[in-house]
Amino acid sequence: MPQSFAGVYLHLIFSTKNRECSIRTEWAPRLYEYIGGILRDRKCQLLAAGGVEDHVHLLVSLSREITLSSLVRDIKSVSSHWVHQNMTGSQEFAWQQGYAVFSVSQSALVHVKKRTSVAPLGLDVYFRLVTRGCRPWLLSAGPLGLGNGCEALIAD
After folding, report:
1. Could you list the residue range(s) of the whole structural domain that residue 103 is in?
2. How many folded domains does the chain comprise?
């Protein structure tokens, strides 16, 4: 019997409408759990989640049975409805249109997962390093694992 396998890992980022600080720290973990359920319902898997008050970072294993755009649409729509129904004072909550997505190689998966969930440098600093060509998970010198010229990017 023929079988299909897909190992598609994505780092997905999207923000709240107008980048408003509307994701409350007291319910953000529940939001991430709920998003994990949305993904499971679509045969995907949430590997890590994190973020701040105005945007989220999700590390996702994408199913071969759904398109990326459909998945993002569903995550935003269903989670927004959940926030409205379950979080007092959040009736104005909304996600901004659009998203950013980056593929993640299997060799970098552990490191991106670690940074998405717990980011000692901060998620924004970590992804600024990555988008400028640094690979913080491979850096070895210094207390934060920096030392190849990338430390200057932290202050940007």
Report:
1. 8-118
2. 2
Cα–Cα distance for residue pair 49/90, rounded to 1 Å: 21
With a CB cutoff of 8 Å and minimum separation 6, the contacts of 42 are 63, 65, 66, 71, 74
Angle, helices 68-86 vs 28-41, to 10°: value is 140
Q: Does residue 2 lie in a domain region? A: no
Find out whether 35 and 74 touch, Cβ atoms under 8 Å: no
Coil, strand or helix at 23:
coil
> Does 1 reside within a domain?
no
Say if residue 92 is in the same domain as residue 78.
Answer: yes
pLDDT in tens, 30-71: 999 999 999 999 999 999 888 888 899 999 999 999 999 999
Distance between CA atoms of 87 and 82, rounded to whole angstroms? 8
Specify the pTM: 0.73
